[in-house]
Fold these 4 entries.
Entry 1:
Amino acid sequence: MDRLKISTAGESHGKALIGIIEGIPAGLPIETQDIDKQLRRRQQGHGRGGRMKIEQDHAEILSGVRWGKTLASPIALKIENRDWENWQKGMSPLSQDEGSIDPVTRARPGHADLAGCLKYGFRDIRNVLERSSARETAMRVALGAVCRTFLAQFGITIGSFVIRTGGAGKRYYQSAMNELDGLKDIGNRLIAFSAKADESVVRCPFEEDAQQMINAIDEAKDRGDTIGGVFEVFAVGLPIGLGSHVQWDKRLNGQLAQAIMSIQAVKGVECGLGFDLSQRFGSRLMDEILYSDEMGFYRLSNFAGGLEGGMTNGMPLLLRAIMKPIPTQRNPLNSIDIVTKEAKEAAYERSDVCAVAACSVIAEAMIAFVLTDAMLCKFGGDCIDETVRNYKNYLNYLKEF
């Protein structure tokens, strides 16, 4: 990212998570309740683990905001880990506490355990698993809430919903891409899907599919297993022309895919119709261009998912991602003790059965980062009023083109 810089720090069972975001213009209204709302959404979902009963995440603003408005300086947030009280010796930064808990030496297949220890020379896997844990994504969601507030100044809405859990659900929802009733209706439909998803314990807006997903999660839990799934994440209200075709690293689709792929356990990302585009004739899959004085250039379909040539085309951005089953198993898999080299069962850490619902909310934060950076690259501004003025001037230019 060119204009936005985001960093997080903290371990899963450490004292707190810390996040810093730089590049937000001055004057943006920020309230902690808006951040906490997104944190609550991340913690929901059928099949979540015992930690959700312990943590009720709350973000504290440490810097960069005064009297509810950003200062253009770095914004620092803190989320305390309530489980820290049980780990004060085991995760202490002090050398005098070394050895207060036993090391973890049995690597878990599917995790960062083995590669991380070999890379950094650790003989205790806890030095890897504490940071590689998805607990870190709580801070991504908190920082993403700041970006969501920024994007809302321009009428941009971000949302998501789960479409598949294990074998339950659908490959994708055709109505999100091609309903032949115009841009506004496609966007409104996506927003309605996301709102309905927030009422579901599996974040699926379709009741029949949602019940099948609940059943699939319960079955996995009874087996002592885990289950993955697929979700869609979108943004509505984006202007034409974010991103660029002129260099590979400026293409917005690449930036968005990397952002979502950075989420723990995500193994694939599609845009629009995605991989199914390969199975049909091109003449049936290009989003034909129309024009009216009221709407300007527009489309009646969205097979491209709102991106053409690495740039937004004015249609809703629509991405789809697959999350693999969480690799930590209640019935441990075969592994090796990294110290003794003996065959052992993998270590078990408290874990979820299914976290696809949470992953969809995390993905919202990730695309909020990328889109905020793209908006700042396009429209600049040291204060939010300046950015909004530049944006409005661009919209006027599009109308006059």
Entry 2:
Amino acid sequence: MRLSTILSEVARNLATGTTRAVGLALALGVAAGALAALDASTIVGMEHDAARYRSAAADVRTVSAPGLVDPQACDALGGSTSVQDAGALVPTTPVVPSATPASPLQSFAVTPSLAGVLAVRSPLPEGVWMSDQLAERLGLARGATLETDDRPLVLAGTFAWPDDGRDGRLGFAVLRPTVTNARFEECWAAAWPTTPAVEDLLRGVVDVQPQSTEAITVGQVNRSLGAAYDAHATYVARPTRYTVAACAVLGLVLGYASVRRRRLEHAGALHAGQSRSAQLATSSLETVVWAAVGTAVSVVGLRVVVARVGAMDPTAVFDVVVRGPVLGALCAVVGATVAACLVREQHLFRYFKDR
């Protein structure tokens, strides 16, 4: 049978509704799209969980060793493969505001690189940092001056430090950026993804002295959300990871059923002289058409879903979940081909009786 004849028959079957292409396309598109949308929703939820973990400073690991932390070694951790930002700090003499001498503020000397860990917003070259709530309580804005019993302090920058389980000391403390070779008390490192190797790196910034009796303590700025968050393991173990396989099974079933329900027609065509290859080509092309339309329905729906569920990286999420509908379409063609291969001319009368 010539290609033009095959294409003509395919077009005729589609136009007359013999293939029930519209129903099959909608079934595949809606079902596969719903499965993929469920997976997308789960992945986006995991994205938000990870973002919440980081925004709460739960990804910031600390090492405490009074008088033993090398500030230069601590700063050097920032920008490595495991650590994005790092900085050191040490308590200093409290700051006594002139307006409230009875309420001194805790003070820390910090390395300038701690600004990255705390996400200090556009700090000025000179001055001190404090949390948003402390600046609001003192009635200060960036660039304003805090009068103290020692000397005026310029507010160089502020950072968010809500009461969400994180180390509360910095919520009402004045941070003084300092460049010095003197030993500090703590080193903080923002590390994502969280790995045990970060703790080993933090221990490496401690200048251990043989005669020292100070304990070295590795901790976490915010433990309320768990000691660790393995984003990769959570993604791999997500319950909706089987939606791709479900789409494949769905495609196989629909493709197989679309041909099997017409087995009497196909057996009759073979009996009338149609070649097996022509029949396979016809069935496959018919399936390709409705499967492609169904996939297009899924893709359009997924674009809308991914855009509306607040994905942080919509392209990456879409690229992951679209595999289900695409695989479903491919499996539909496979299922139809298998069903067509199983049609036997000698079973024509049995098909007639079972119709």
Entry 3:
Amino acid sequence: MNLKHIMLVLAALTTGLTAGVFFGYQVSIIPAFTALSNTAYIDAMQRINNAIQNPAFLVTFMSPAIFLPVATYLRRKTSFSLPFTFLFVATCLYIVGTFGVTMAANVPLNDALAAFSFQTATPEQIATARTAFQDPWNFWHLIRTVASVGSFLLIIIASLSASDVRSVPSR
């Protein structure tokens, strides 16, 4: 296994893990949270936003922004190849649609919610805070989920279409 393969494996692994976290949240947590009261929703989101800030998630989430460009660069040739093209699009999709959206949209919304104290707020203020957070956050989360899953899919396609991948004849 050479550096080109190692970078591709690491890019696929970390992108897939990130896509899995976002997809799982999209199809389970978001629907479940619609039934929560405003106070319970804000409390739960604040707790999740605190819990997700841990080394395992942060390294996994940030790694594709390093591994994908390196894997893409290592696949370049004098003319554009199919694997390079798929990896280039996967890189752009992850950096803009997953990493960029998270940093530009979801994190600021998380920070604003973290500053809100539901313990001292009126029910109307709590309802307003939920409305200001929930719909925009869910929209941007869907965007980053689609981007991370799309990026992961493109990495798989690039891996399968790589010219240096040899098919093993069936026996």
Entry 4:
Amino acid sequence: MSIRDILVTDRSVAEFCSEFDSEITIIANLLEQSNSCFEHYFSDSENQKHKWVKEFAFMAIESLATATRLLIEGHVNSSGNTMRISYESLCLAILLSADRNIIIDKSKEAKPVNFYDAYQQNRNNTRPHKAIDNVLLNADTLGLIEGKEWLKQAKNFYNGYSHASIIAMGSLMLPSGRSIIAGDFYKEKLSLYKDHIKFMIRYAKQLPNLIEVVATRNLIRRSSE
């Protein structure tokens, strides 16, 4: 198949969907739950903080849906990179909705700061690529005690698909030495697909509750005081 054919031919995703039908159904149902939570709990607001929280929460859901579609089409690296965007978006929503000051500097002299204020000031430690580390650093303060371990594992897994790494290169090679161009389904990559789907399902199971938490954090906080 020529490069042009690879780019413009409408290739089927039937093989992947047949192999992973039950897993795709699980992810789809959890995405529906996440979207329902988003539509139920979020409303339009002129408040910039609330708008950012809403927009990042939406991007977390949308990026998971897109990453799933990319994986089904065989675009492993693009899927992995998009999953990292989803995690970073969720973490930014968590950080921006935080009702307590947090640490964003690992130095011994670091003092807790208001993340929203620091984000508005475009401080270096509030950049998207540091969002996951900031949540992990403040997991207890942010109430993410049970989710700390899976978030750390996901960060380590997807880092390999966000850069020009040996891991990313390996996803494009078959055992025969043949290269993969622009995705498609290969039985030789079943183990790799399974690894990605495992992380997607674990994340998707957490997402509806976390969307609800970031949307209602202040309400929950007031009701518990």
